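Exam revision sheet. Question 4 asks you to relate a sequence to its structure. Input first:
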Amino acid sequence: MTTTPERRSKRVTSVLRDRRDAPENSTASATRAMANTTSAAFRYALVFAVIWWIVLLNLVLFTANRVTLNVAQLELADAIVTARLAESKTGKLVIEKVWSGPAKIVELQLDPQLFSGSATDSTWLIPLTRTGNDRFDVTRAVSKNSHGDSVVQPAYVYPWNAEAQQQLDAFLAGR
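Answer key, structure tokens:
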């Protein structure tokens, strides 16, 4: 059977068309598919990382350095005052307001370690216990350990801010 030139050109055109429509080769198509998968996984990982950083930033902004007053310490206090730190090296404080207790307290001298690293002129909420005539010290709360023994807690003073004032107002209202 002889092929005419016209028939041969149709066959060649058909073969060329099939090659054009077929995948180039399996390695190239696999490489492209893997690149698409890798870039999609990278995008998902990037989106997840950005969301995670937003969550962490919210935690830092809304929970960092929160002041929580020790209610047991406030209940034991003979006086509760806000005082401005006059000298951080000596622990000298000037009373700004007496919230509860004797109103004649004007000045305090406390352990300077309570205010280590604090700026002079910073304001503090201080629960006080009377230790003698016109002498006061920071109140120490007492708690029970797992054996039922009483344990004296450290002396806590609190930075004065809106959150501390809100908690103190709630405490004094319920007293």
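Marking note for examiners. The mean pLDDT is 80.
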